[in-house]
Amino acid sequence: MKKNKGRSRFLVLCVAPATILFFLFMILPTLNVFRMSLYERGAYSPQETFVGLKNFQQLIRDTQFIRSMQNMILLVVVVTLITFAFALVFAAILTREKIKGQNFFRVVFYIPNILSVVVISGIFSAIYKPENGMLNSIIGLFRDMTNPILWKGEKLVIPSIIIAMVWQAVGYYMVMYMASMSSVPASLYESANLDGASRLTQFFRITIPLIWTNIRTTLTFFIISTINMAFLFVTAMTSGGPNHASEVALSYMYSQKNAGLYGYSMAIGVAIFVFSFALSACINKATSREPLEF
């Protein structure tokens, strides 16, 4: 009996610090965001005025907020699809094909994940420069560039950010999937070869189903992190411009906070939180499958 009590106390002591810190730095701030979204507060005044759902009613009518949400959703969907497609294909090639220097390619693909968002944004901003950027310089070899392409102009700014975000993320997930694919028994592929299955068929019928649990977990994590990464890339590369064309929900919330609209910015935060939570639930439901054992 005493041993059980001592064990219980030990477990409580181990878990308590992390639980307390999580409550103080995650739960309480989140609850405070919900509370502040129901108030109005001046930029230089601690006085708060209760306004109920007024901030949320304003959100529905705010065309700039709606546009920023559309940009965020577009970035999340496109970046996720492209990143996971490239990561899975590259991982399959480097795992199954006999390519010299596999470790070299792993390192090369992983390097962008080591770099900070600010560094990557600086690299791509230099590449996208209209006058002497690398991209326009290469295109200039084949066509007249009197009117240079504005890669960070209103029409192309979102695709330009997507390219930078994909470049940053592919290597990390490729390495993760390579680890998962390496654990798939070679005998399954040998049996498939004897049955005449092509590499493409093996990829979709053997590889993907057997690493699906890992794909599902990383998919949820990646989509939520992309919401945050979109804010970082937009802030570092364009600051939401030009003319708010690249504004995403988090950067719009940040700008409203800087304008002194604390209650309204917290309402935007609540909307993003609810969207992220609902999106995670939908993804988990849509990707739910019986785990396969091998």
Automatic annotation (TrEMBL):
It holds the Pfam family BPD_transp_1. It comes from the Bacteria. GO terms for biological process: transmembrane transport. The chain crosses the membrane at residues 12-31, 72-95, 107-128, 156-175, 219-241, 261-283. Residues 69-283 form the ABC transmembrane type-1 domain. PROSITE patterns: ABC_TM1. GO terms for cellular component: plasma membrane. PANTHER family: ABC TRANSPORTER PERMEASE PROTEIN, INNER MEMBRANE ABC TRANSPORTER PERMEASE PROTEIN YCJO. This is Sugar ABC transporter permease.
